[in-house]
Amino acid sequence: MTVLDTLANIGLLYFLFLVGLELDIRAIRRTGTNSLIIAVAGISLPFILGIGASVVLRSTVNKGVSNIVFLVFMGVALSITAFPVLARILAELKLLTTDVGRIAMSAAAVNDVVAWILLALAIALSGSDSSYLVSVWVLLCGTAFIVFSIFVLKPILSVMARRSPEGEPVKELYICITLSIVLAAGLITDIIGIHALFGAFVVGIIIPKDGPFAGVLIEKIEDLVSGLFLPLYFASSGLKTNVATIEGSQSWGLLVLVIFTACFGKIVGTVVLAMLFKVPFIEALALGVLMNTKGLVELIVLNIGKDRKVIYSRN
Question: Domain total for the chain?
Answer without folding.
Answer: 1
